[in-house]
Specification:
- It comes from Terriglobus albidus.
- InterPro entries: Sce7726-like (IPR047729).
- This is Sce7726 family protein.
- The chain is built from 7 helices and 6 strands, in the order H-E-E-E-H-E-H-E-E-H-H-H-H.
């Protein structure tokens, strides 16, 4: 986390969020700036059981994804993640844990309009439709109809931008608004409830237990 804050240090441009909700999974860290970039972290005490579902959850949404893991899982994880994911190895160096880049992330070729649209609240989705001149649904329409309209009408490259703008406009780390069928069906959440990412020693600890999704 310290490394990310150093790399993405412009508070007016870079939003760094822990435990970022995406579909049925949570990315350990998401960086929202000129792109949507997820960082998934696997400690030496983790398994790769959840990684398969995380690959599926992230592929329609994030423009970039980087996996950070210890030596124990490195080769196994490499076989699971798509080739466009970045990969970093955590290792000890002079008593500290440092991150070594194995490969840099590439732009996701599988972003999906429907997955992106589901990252918007209903009110945000309606605003996006109005912005681009579409009035095929109204505030009285079911949220699912609104999201489907966004996915149909807004190209992926524009929708990705609009999702970034919406997340940053919500501000801070508290996206805890819950959804209902007649109001805002979709939401993203970020719960900055852990500070362990400031100290990377837990990454190589066999006792560390990763929090559940």
């Amino acid at each position: 986390m310290r490394e990310l804050r150093q790399e993405y240090s412009d508070e007016n441009h870079d939003l760094i969020l822990e435990e970022f909700g995406c579909n049925s999974s949570r990315a350990d860290v998401a960086v929202i700036n000129g792109a949507l970039h997820a960082f998934e972290i696997k400690s030496d005490s983790d398994t790769l059981e959840r990684l398969y579902a995380q690959v599926e959850a992230y592929k329609g949404v994030f423009q970039y994804v980087t996996l950070v893991c210890g030596e124990r899982l490195l080769e196994s994880a490499r076989k699971v993640i798509p080739r466009w994911w970045g990969l970093q190895r955590a290792q000890h160096n002079n008593g500290k844990v440092v991150l070594i880049t194995i490969r840099k992330s590439k732009k996701n070729p599988t972003q999906d309009a429907s997955a992106l649209a589901r990252m918007l609240w209903k009110t945000e989705a309606l605003t996006v439709l109005r912005k681009y001149g579409h009035s095929i649904v109204t505030s009285r329409s079911p949220a699912e109809d609104v999201v489907q309209a966004v996915a149909k009408c807004i190209p992926v490259h524009l929708l990705s931008d609009e999702v970034r703008y919406a997340i940053k406009a919500r501000g801070g780390s508290g996206f805890a608004k819950r959804s209902s069928l007649d109001d805002d069906l979709y939401t993203t959440e970020s719960i900055a409830r852990q500070n362990h990412l400031l100290d990377l020693s837990w990454l190589l600890s066999p006792q560390y237990q990763h929090p559940p999704d």
